Amino acid sequence: MQMLFGDLPQPDFEEDFVSIHFLASHSLLLLEWKRQITLEERKVGFRKALEITRKNGIRYWLIDDLQLSIITPEEKEWVLSEFQDEASQTTILKLAVVTPDFYPSLVANTEFTEKGKEGYQEKGMIQHEVFPDHSTAVNWLLSEEGTETQENLLQ
Hints:
By secondary structure, this protein is of the alpha/beta class. The protein is 48% helix and 19% strand.
């Protein structure tokens, strides 16, 4: 990610399993999982990210899942219910997830990704996409396509 943004600021939150950076100039939150995580660690990271989002009115999230090889059924359930409910009540407009470009991983998570997209749309206006690399994800996040309409709806 440093190639895309130069020197990242000090993390707004950091633990051995996650780093969260807020880039004010882009209204962008970068959440990077540093290793395989547990459901409790996911909750800690996402709740802290939501707190930072509420405090700063953040519009875009980039979640780096490259270090994750498994998302447990319990994690999926929590993300699709509790987390989506909370996220849908924030200023987030777009959420991009970067996953390993590993075919079995992508196939295993296709249903989860589709349920996620549907859930965000039903609960609010968050657009959700999954990408194999950071640059494609950032280009999508920071493009104006679809964002203007959402901003008008928020006013």
